[in-house]
Structures are given as structure tokens and as C-alpha cells.
């Protein structure tokens, strides 16, 4: 049986690529040093996979920013506004162009907005959304995939396997920028470029090519099935001799099983972690020459593989197909897992024995083949680890389970309906039309990060640390008052991460030192590990919110992360339903909300940016998820009086298909990302006649460019076309943690000026 991986983490075990990219953007290093870092990382990852015994090793899975963006460059689908950057090549490299498209560009007299960004299916990874015009033309533009294959071919004894986003999924991942056409209509123009690339790879010596088609695991839109048939018929016709592997993941094939098995490719990969039951239906449908790649090692979580369960699936496949038509692999790219468990020297040995990161998952793939062929020692060792975790006394707390079981419908209801609450809140806060605020965090400068590191190392006392944080908080409050914001935040300088911070104060969580996972670009997150029942034993944020409110007469928001986001952005235990864990977290957050209210905090924001991300890929599964997800939020928010205003925040999501459930969350104010999409997301709220207040983002915080007052004013005026002016708030798209202070201050001053201008216009109209 061939063993392979679909992709490997890009950043490096110690986030070398992140640091190199950010140093390059800040001009602390040059291109050569950036490229050398990237080359070393790729070579290290290839060698590591070869040493682990992988027979097919992916190449071109590496990216400076995003693999979908790389595909856009490969096929030359570069929006016209970046023509000046393209013209400057080779003065600007392909990497510079990619950075401009992903982050925006504000240099040399140019002011180019970034491309839109959204979530990669139900993960916390963000991809850059392709933009398509009705007259879109494609051409082979980037050489990245060819350079990667050439480098891997000369370095490895194993077979390099170029990885590309498949042509149909690539189109479906994009967005039409002109009315009157569907992006799948572009397939006849796109496909010749793919075929040219595949032929070139074959001529260079490629034996296998991996084409990722995750949309085959979704409810396909109209025309997609025909698009798949056409695309892969053409590829088979023009790329004879090249072995093509189509990969699906994040869900089972279900009703697309017949389509996926009829594409004429050499191998089909399926996710047997998300849907192990599909194997029985799939095996009888496979054509005689189609091999099957079994995704049996979880590419989305950090728990050790249960060899008994995986071997049952492998034996089932081998009994039907024979060993030569079966491959073993992780369920999806290991992009979504941390790199190496060996670095976790501070994690206690019992917890470590339950886990596997990307490097260890390679070992699991290799060991599964060995156990299949009779290695009883590996089998017994794995069985012991699985049994020890199941029997551990650290996992289950009867009191937590009893409280969760006692949740009633009343626990998820505010005392009064929104119109009554809105009236009471307006009387309490007396905010102007178009009130201004931010989403929560302010720049985490080098000084702040160094301060936190010094405290963790014991170089600062708790008193010294708190005094420094108080000083930073007071400074942020003074700046917000000077800028003219209406509702302030304390800046979150005490927080390392919006999920990890809360996990550190809750029971049932564990933490890693190097468990970083790429979220977007150079941005990495370090998800906590939920290994047991969750409970709140003490205050988590009250001290800092209370202090911040004492520094100003203006309203100060208390800032919390919501239960679904804490769940979604953690590595979650897999021994009970996710809904049960979400309910436990919801009760913990509810206790904190009540404590904040008791401390005099009148506006409390419970961020839920991941609620759309957690939506199951298949529509049939969504109602059940949304039922418990919305209930978890409402439980967390419903313990307060009507006069207390509850905010929530969501970012980089389409809301059309879940707007009814967003309304059911019943937050008094919701803030959302809308600047990159030019307020398009508000159409869903307008069509639904969303009754509560909304803060559509007018400032893209994922780009270093500073938008002007007129630009933000135009966005607010556009928002007023969708929403009642009395319900509109003014805010950035998201938190400002990753930005620098000069650009942050400039952008916020422009934002307040824009709000004042629109406010004045409303008065003139009245």
C-alpha cells in the first residue's frame, strides 16, 4: 500500500516563515533572505516526510500566503487593479504580487485594496477569494508549481506529487464581479491552462498529480456535476500517462459518490474520519482501475489515532480491492494541525501520550501499514494509549455534567423582546446616531509581547506586570477619548489570544508551547486543547473591565469570546458530542457575563466569529448544529437585565443561508466584516429585515493600508441603503491586535470623521 500526505504545515515548527514574511514586509530583511528561509523550510518538510516512509510526497502545498491565491497566480486570473504591480515584475516578484493581492498595496503613489478573504470550508483557515469577470481570460502565469516539483525531484528518492486546487473547486471558491453570469461558465477558458500545466509537469517527470476537489463533499450547485464530468474527461484525454489523484475531504461523498467514481482519474481520496460509513457504499461502486486513498488519520485534530478503528477500514478496503489499489493517508492536509509534538516539553506526560501533531501523524500513517502486516508491538502500544485516555479520571466531572443537563429553554431567553430592550438601552447610554466603537483588541506591540514573556519567565512580579498593563490600558483609553470614539474598549493587553486567554482560566483545558496553526497569511493561532469537562471557577475578565471603566466616563465594553468560537478554535475532545462541550462553555461564559454586569459594565460583547465557520458542509446537517450553537450563545448572554446591551461580532462569513439563526441569537448589536465585500453582506440582513442593531465594518484591519474618510463615509452611506440609520454602528471589520499604532490611530480618526459626516447628513435630512 502506498502511503502519502495531502499537504504539510507551511509555517515551520517554530513559525520561521511567519517571522520571515513579517520581517520582509517591515523591510528588516530582503527578498533573498525570505526566499532562502522558504527554500530551507520546503526541503526540511520534504526530507521529514521521506524519512517517515511516505511514498508520495506533496510539493506546491507550500505557500507564502495562501494556496488558493497561488492558484489564481498560476492561471493568471489577476484583477486589473494589480496591473501596475505586474508591470514592475521582475522588480516585484510573484511573492510581492501575491502579498499586494492579499494585503493591499499603498506605496509609490498606488492605493490598491486587497482581495476578499473568507473561511476555507468549516476550518479557521482563510483563503483569498478569486475574482472573476464575465470576460475573464486565463493564461499560465506563475512558475511556482514547476519550480517546486523540480526542486523536490532533484532532492528526493521518493516520488514528488504536485498539488493543485482542482479546476472546478477553484471556480466554485471564487466570486463573480459582474452580473449576469456564473463562474462555472468560465471552465472552457480555464481548463486549457490546467491541461497545459499538467502536461508540463508530466514532461518534467511527474508521475502523480493531486487535484484537490473538496466541493465533491458538498451539496453541489446547479451545473457543477456536468462541470466535473467535462473537466476530467478533458484532463484524461490530454494528459495520458499522468496519474491523477482527486482528493475530497471534510465530509463524505454521499450523493456525489457516483460522480466522483466516474471521473476517469487514477485514484480517489476520501475522508474516513468525518464519514467512515461511506466506505461500505463506495467500495462496490469503484471502477476496476480506480485506486482508493483512505483518509484514516485525522488531519483536523490532535488526538492519537485509534489503530483498531483505522485498521478495520483498511482491511475492509483491502479485502475488496487488494493492497495494490489501496493507499493510506491523513484525512486532509496536515495544514490544520501543529507541526511537532516533540517540542511540547512542558506538557505533562499523560496528556502528551494522548496526542499526535503533524510529524507524529506521518508516523501513524507508516505504522498503520506495519500493523496491518503484523507488527503486534505497535498495535499493543497504541491500544494501551487509547485505553488509558478513556479511563483517565481527569476527563469527567459529574457536577459539570449535571448542570449542563439542567439547562432549560428559559435559560436561553432575555427578559424582554429587543424593541423594549433597545428603548431602555438608548435611555441608559444616550449614544448619538452612528455610534463609533472598535471590536475589542488594540495593537499587541513588541513591548506588550515582551512584557508578557518577561512575566511568564518570572522576570517580573505580578504587581509590576499589572502596573505596566494598567499603564497601557490608561493610554489606550486616553487615545480613544481623544479620537472621539463613543463606546470604548480596554485594549486586551493582558490577553495572548482571544481563545487561549479564556482557556487558561477555565477547567478542562490544556495548552501547548508550539502548537501553532496557520489562520491566514502570516497569522498563526495556538488553539487550546479541550480534554475534559469545562467549568469556570473564578472571574476571568472582571478585574480589567472594572479597572478600564474606572478610567473613563464613557461606556466601556466588557469583552468575551463566545462558546461556539471557543469550541471551534480549540482542539476539541472527540469522546462526547461537540454540542455537550459547547453547552458547558456557555454556562461558564454566562457566569462571567453576570459578574461583569454586577461590576457595573453595561455593554458586554460576546464574540462569535466562528459560528458560521462551524456550519456543517452538508445542508442536511445544519439545522441540528445551528440549534445547539444558537442555544449556546443565548445561554451565555441571557442572564442579564434588559438595560445591559449584549454585542456579538462575526467576521469573514456569508450570512444569507443562516440569517434566520443569526437573528435568533438575539444580540442587541452585531458587528460584521463588510469593507472588503463593499457592504455586500448587508443584503442578507436587509432582505430578512433584520430587526436588531448592526455595525458593518468600514475599515479592513487585515491590510496595512489606511482608508480615507471619504472611502469610509461612502461605505456608511451604502450601508444606509440597506439598514435603518438608527440601527447602524460604525466600527472596523475586526480587532486591531495585529496592526501597528500609527496606522490604527490614523484609520480610527478617519472612521470617526466619516461617522460625524454621515451623522450631520442625517440631521440635515431630518
Automatic annotation (TrEMBL):
**One Pfam family per UniProt:** Meth_synt_2
Instruction: Detail which positions bind Zn(2+).
Output: 649, 651, 673, 734
Family annotation (InterPro entries): Cbl-indep_Met_Synth_N (IPR013215), Cobalamin-indep_Met_synthase (IPR006276), Met_Synth_C/arc (IPR002629), UROD/MetE-like_sf (IPR038071)
**Which reaction(s) are listed as its catalytic activity?**
5-methyltetrahydropteroyltri-L-glutamate + L-homocysteine = tetrahydropteroyltri-L-glutamate + L-methionine
Could you list this entry's UniProt keywords, alphabetically sorted.
Amino-acid biosynthesis, Metal-binding, Methionine biosynthesis, Methyltransferase, Repeat, Transferase, Zinc
Residue numbers binding L-methionine: 439-441, 492, 607
Record flagged with keyword Repeat: yes
* Name this polypeptide is given: 5-methyltetrahydropteroyltriglutamate--homocysteine methyltransferase
- What pathway is this protein said to act in by its record? Amino-acid biosynthesis; L-methionine biosynthesis via de novo pathway; L-methionine from L-homocysteine (MetE route): step 1/1
Lineage summary: Bacteria, Pseudomonadati, Bacteroidota, Chitinophagia, Chitinophagales
Q: What is its EC number?
A: 2.1.1.14
A single Gene Ontology MF term assigned here is: 5-methyltetrahydropteroyltriglutamate-homocysteine S-methyltransferase activity
Required cofactors, per record? Zn(2+)
Q: Which residues form the active site?
A: 702 (proton donor)
- Residues that bind L-homocysteine, according to the entry? 439-441, 492, 607
Give the encoding gene's name.
metE
Asked if the keyword Ligase belongs to this entry, the reply reads no
So which domain of life are we looking at?
A: Bacteria
Family matches, as CDD domains: CIMS_C_terminal_like (cd03311), CIMS_N_terminal_like (cd03312)
One of the protein's GO biological processes: methylation
Comment on bound cofactor = Binds 1 zinc ion per subunit.
Q: Where is the Cobalamin-independent methionine synthase MetE C-terminal/archaeal domain?
A: 435-756
Amino acid at each position: 500500500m502506498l502511503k502519502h500526505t495531502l499537504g504539510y504545515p507551511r509555517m515551520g515548527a517554530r513559525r520561521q516563515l511567519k517571522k520571515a514574511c513579517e520581517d520582509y514586509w517591515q523591510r528588516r530583511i530582503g527578498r533573498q533572505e525570505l526566499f532562502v528561509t522558504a527554500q530551507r523550510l520546503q526541503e526540511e518538510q520534504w526530507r521529514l516526510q521521506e524519512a517517515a516512509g511516505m511514498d508520495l510526497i506533496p510539493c506546491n502545498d507550500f505557500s507564502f500566503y495562501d494556496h488558493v491565491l497561488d492558484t489564481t497566480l498560476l492561471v493568471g486570473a489577476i484583477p486589473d487593479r494589480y496591473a501596475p504591480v505586474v508591470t514592475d515584475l521582475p522588480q516585484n516578484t510573484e511573492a510581492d504580487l501575491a502579498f499586494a493581492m492579499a494585503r493591499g498595496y499603498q506605496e509609490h503613489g498606488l492605493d490598491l485594496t486587497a482581495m476578499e478573504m473568507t473561511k476555507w470550508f468549516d476550518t479557521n483557515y482563510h483563503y483569498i477569494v478569486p475574482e472573476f469577470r464575465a470576460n475573464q481570460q486565463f493564461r499560465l502565469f506563475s512558475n511556482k508549481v514547476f519550480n517546486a516539483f523540480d526542486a523536490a525531484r532533484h532532492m528526493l528518492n521518493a516520488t514528488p506529487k504536485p498539488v493543485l486546487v482542482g479546476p472546478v473547486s477553484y471556480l466554485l471558491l471564487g466570486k463573480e464581479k459582474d452580473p449576469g453570469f456564473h463562474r462555472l461558465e468560465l471552465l472552457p477558458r480555464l481548463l486549457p491552462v490546467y491541461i497545459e500545466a499538467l502536461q508540463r509537469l508530466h514532461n518534467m517527470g511527474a508521475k502523480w498529480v493531486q487535484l484537490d476537489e473538496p466541493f465533491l463533499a458538498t451539496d453541489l450547485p446547479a451545473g457543477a456535476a456536468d462541470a466535473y464530468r467535462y473537466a476530467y474527461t478533458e484532463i484524461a484525454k490530454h494528459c495520458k500517462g499522468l496519474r491523477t489523484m482527486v482528493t475530497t475531504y471534510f465530509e463524505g461523498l454521499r450523493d456525489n459518490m457516483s460522480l466522483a467514481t466516474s471521473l476517469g482519474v487514477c485514484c480517489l481520496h476520501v475522508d474516513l474520519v468525518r464519514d467512515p460509513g461511506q466506505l461500505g457504499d463506495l467500495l462496490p461502486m469503484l471502477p476496476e482501475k480506480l485506486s482508493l486513498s483512505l483518509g484514516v488519520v485525522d488531519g483536523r485534530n490532535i488526538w492519537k489515532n485509534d489503530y483498531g478503528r483505522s485498521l478495520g477500514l483498511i482491511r475492509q478496503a483491502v479485502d475488496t480491492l487488494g493492497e495494490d489499489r489501496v493507499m493510506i493517508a491523513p484525512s486532509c492536509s496536515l495544514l490544520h494541525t501543529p507541526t511537532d509534538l516533540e517540542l511540547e516539553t512542558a506538557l505533562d506526560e499523560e496528556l502528551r501520550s494522548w496526542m499526535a501533531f503533524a510529524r507524529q501523524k506521518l508516523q501513524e500513517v507508516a505504522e498503520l501499514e506495519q500493523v496491518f502486516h503484523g507488527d503486534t508491538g505497535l498495535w499493543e502500544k497504541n491500544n494501551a494509549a487509547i485505553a488509558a485516555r478513556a479511563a483517565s479520571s481527569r476527563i469527567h466531572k459529574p457536577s459539570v455534567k449535571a448542570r449542563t443537563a439542567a439547562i432549560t429553554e428559559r435559560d436561553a431567553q432575555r427578559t424582554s423582546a429587543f424593541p423594549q430592550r433597545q428603548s431602555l438601552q438608548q435611555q441608559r447610554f444616550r449614544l448619538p446616531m452612528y455610534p463609533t466603537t472598535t471590536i475589542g483588541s488594540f495593537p499587541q506591540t513588541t513591548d506588550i509581547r515582551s512584557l508578557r514573556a518577561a512575566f511568564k519567565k518570572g522576570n517580573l512580579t505580578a504587581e509590576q506586570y499589572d502596573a505596566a498593563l494598567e499603564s497601557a490600558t490608561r493610554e489606550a483609553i486616553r487615545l480613544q477619548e481623544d479620537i472621539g470614539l463613543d463606546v470604548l474598549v480596554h485594549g486586551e493587553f493582558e490577553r495572548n489570544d482571544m481563545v487561549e486567554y479564556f482557556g487558561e482560566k477555565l477547567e478542562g483545558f490544556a495548552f501547548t508551547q508550539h502548537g501553532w496553526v496557520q489562520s491566514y497569511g502570516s497569522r498563526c493561532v495556538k488553539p487550546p486543547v479541550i480534554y475534559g469537562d469545562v467549568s469556570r471557577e473564578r472571574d476571568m475578565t472582571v478585574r480589567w473591565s472594572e479597572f478600564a471603566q474606572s478610567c473613563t466616563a464613557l461606556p466601556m465594553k466588557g469583552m468575551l469570546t463566545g462558546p461556539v468560537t471557543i469550541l471551534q478554535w480549540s482542539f476539541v475532545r472527540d469522546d462526547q458530542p461537540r454540542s455537550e462541550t459547547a453547552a458547558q462553555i456557555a454556562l461558564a461564559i454566562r457566569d462571567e457575563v453576570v459578574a461583569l454586569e454586577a461590576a457595573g459594565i453595561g455593554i458586554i460583547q460576546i464574540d462569535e466569529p466562528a459560528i458560521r465557520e462551524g456550519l456543517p458542509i452538508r445542508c442536511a446537517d445544519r439545522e441540528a448544529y445551528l440549534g445547539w450553537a444558537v442555544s449556546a450563545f443565548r445561554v451565555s448572554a441571557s442572564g442579564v437585565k434588559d438595560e445591559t446591551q449584549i454585542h456579538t461580532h462575526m467576521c469573514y462569513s456569508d450570512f444569507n443561508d443562516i440569517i434566520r439563526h443569526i437573528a435568533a441569537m438575539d444580540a442587541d448589536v452585531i458587528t460584521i466584516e463588510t469593507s472588503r465585500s463593499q457592504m455586500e453582506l448587508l443584503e442578507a440582513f436587509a432582505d430578512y429585515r433584520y430587526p436588531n442593531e448592526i455595525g458593518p465594518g468600514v475599515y479592513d484591519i487585515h491590510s496595512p493600508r489606511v482608508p480615507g474618510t471619504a472611502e469610509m463615509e461612502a461605505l456608511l452611506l451604502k450601508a444606509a441603503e440597506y439598514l435603518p440609520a438608527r440601527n447602524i454602528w460604525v466600527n472596523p471589520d475586526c480587532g486591531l491586535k495585529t496592526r501597528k499604532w500609527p496606522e490604527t490611530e490614523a484609520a480610527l480618526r478617519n472612521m470617526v470623521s466619516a461617522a460625524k459626516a454621515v451623522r450631520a447628513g442625517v440631521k440635515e435630512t431630518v
